[in-house]
Amino acid sequence: MSHMMTAHDFNFDAQCKTSGWDFYVRLKIVNYIRRHVYMGMCPVCAHKTSSGDLMDHMSSEGHCDIPTEMSLWNEPHYLFPTYENDSFLNILNDNDIDDT
């Protein structure tokens, strides 16, 4: 996550905390973004391109972010991981965002 903060000025933990998202919402968001990137599609605008061009597109358009339209990623099928044995998903559970 430090790469996202350094290279793209995006703080996933802070955005989740501000929005009050629980583990399942965070899981859907991560799987939505990963699936779109895997398919070569921008998760924000659905622009389709090759993976190298996709990263250029997302950086230049400011699309290294969570889509604001919740209906895009708030679907039950995004509860299932894009990658088998995805260790990042375990971090989501370990880092429950809670100030209590």
Q: Could you describe the 3D structure shown?
A:
With 100 residues, this protein is mostly helical. The chain is 54% helix and 0% strand. The chain has helices spanning 2-8, 12-19, 23-38, 51-61, 70-73, 87-94. The model has no long low-confidence stretch (mean pLDDT 84).
Layout of SSEs?
Blueprint: H1 2-8, H2 12-19, H3 23-38, H4 51-61, H5 70-73, H6 87-94
Instruction: Tally the helices.
Output: 6
Count the E strands: 0
Helix content: 40-55%
Distance between the termini: 23 Å
Main sheet specs: none
N-to-C SSE string, H for helix and E for strand: HHHHHH
Rough outline: globular
Radius of gyration: 13 Å
Low-confidence stretches: none
Q: Which key terms come to mind for this protein?
A:
about 100 residues, mainly alpha, 6 helices, about 0% strand
Summarize the structure.
The chain contains six helices and no strands.
